[in-house]
Write a structure and sequence with these properties.
This protein has about 375 residues and is of the alpha/beta class. It has 13 helices and 14 strands. It is about 35% helix and about 25% strand. The radius of gyration is 21 Å and the shape is globular. The structure holds zinc ion.
Length: about 375
């Protein structure tokens, strides 16, 4: 049995009362939380800093880890997409992809991350996830802008979810982005997840080009679709923001909207009413678009905010603390408690793993990290368990 105390203990939503002690059993599970006064003083381990539950990374693409340092920065999303496709065509070996995913998984574990929401387009990262100490919720991502291909694209992806489940891994289906996935396909994916009580995810408003695409203005996606030799002359811009064009496909299910860099106040209000979570990936935003969301717009929705690392194709590390520090450095919108909540309990809730991760849960080992907060920046000083 261990008895742990610190300057502050954060439980996933707030700080525990001063003098609280965490009682940890021999299996590293939380037994109970007691007051210092009931524990013999020489038995208590005291830590300098803040103890938090293990971090939950809301958004990653493990299968893109081999692209670290290979993608040019600040090209914008259409340029980024083009580079990813060219890299995929260059024929990287399965072995290289696997090795990079394995190293990325270890990097996250060492950075205090215990659960991850991870996007997969194929089965490249499944073996890594199966053998990992980290709990993964995998979003099998589906693309297909042409409504004529809706059923075919859905049917091509479903076997990956079945494969994942046969390996004992958690997962659901997800739409890639509104500029790459038809409304009909988003609707079908949302219905499937709703029926199976699974969380949903979609990349949302990561680039201004997406807004222009939906408003029918000249935009960068034309280049991308020309490059792909895809005829999209049939596409009729709905004349509103992308989010407002697809939001009604959601059936009040848990949905993670990833990025939200160009979301407006109206977009955000609409989505909050639909049970959506907003996931920020600030380092990826700086890498690709060199622009961050206006965090002030999200200030009042502290229970709906998440943080993710995105992939090593658009980030130099998979470190949730580094992401939090970018937000802290660039905005005063959130208190430290809110930032910590965005690294733990909110993400666990969005991924449907809140009964195991993201807070201090009796009977569970949800990980424990020790962080310091100095000069408005967080630092992971120790992975306690
Ligand atoms: Zn992503």
């Amino acid at each position: 049995m261990r008895f742990l105390k610190a300057d502050k203990i954060f439980d996933g939503r707030q700080y525990l009362p001063e003098g609280s002690v965490l009682v940890i059993d021999s299996q590293n599970r939380l037994k109970e939380i007691v007051a210092t006064t009931v524990v013999q003083n020489d038995k208590v381990e005291s830590f300098e800093g803040i103890i938090t539950p293990g971090f939950v990374n809301a958004h990653c693409h493990l299968e893109l880890s081999h692209l670290k340092g290979k993608i040019q920065k600040h090209t914008g999303i259409p340029g980024f997409g083009k580079q990813i496709i060219m890299q995929r065509m260059s024929g990287v070996s399965k072995e290289k992809i696997h090795e990079a995913a394995l190293a990325a998984d270890e990097e996250m574990w060492n950075n205090g991350i215990v659960a991850v929401g991870d996007i997969s387009n194929a089965d490249d990262s499944f073996k890594t996830k199966q053998n990992s100490k980290i709990k993964y919720h995998t979003f099998i991502e589906i693309l297909g802008l042409n409504p004529a291909n809706e059923k075919m694209m859905f049917d091509l992806s479903l076997p990956f979810l079945r494969m994942l489940q046969s390996l004992g891994l958690a997962g659901s289906l997800a739409a890639h982005a509104p500029y790459s996935t038809s409304l009909q396909l988003i609707d079908r994916i949302a219905k499937f997840d709703k029926e199976n009580n699974l969380p949903l995810s979609i990349h949302n408003q990561e680039t201004e080009e997406e807004t222009k695409f939906f408003l029918g203005q000249p935009n960068g996606f034309k280049d991308l679709y020309d490059f792909l030799k895809a005829d999209i002359s049939w596409f009729k811009a709905p004349g509103c923001s992308s989010l407002r064009s697809y939001i009604n496909a959601f059936n009040d299910q848990k949905t993670m909207l990833v990025h939200n860099t160009f979301s407006t106040k109206e977009d955000i209000e609409t989505a909050v009413n639909k049970n959506c979570f907003f996931c920020f990936c600030p380092n990826a935003n700086l890498y690709i678009e060199n622009k961050l969301p206006d965090y002030n717009l999200f200030k009042e929705y502290q229970n709906s905010l998440c943080i993710g690392t995105d992939s090593l194709a658009s980030n130099d590390s998979l470190d949730l603390v580094a992401e939090a520090n970018v937000i802290l450095k660039n905005s005063k919108a959130f208190s430290l408690e809110t930032i910590l909540q965005m690294m733990t309990s909110n993400n666990a809730s969005a991924l449907n793993v809140e009964s195991e991760f993201g807070s201090l849960i009796p009977g569970k080992n949800s990980g424990l990290n020790l962080v310091n907060f100095e000069n408005n920046q967080l630092k992971l000083t120790q992975k306690i368990i």
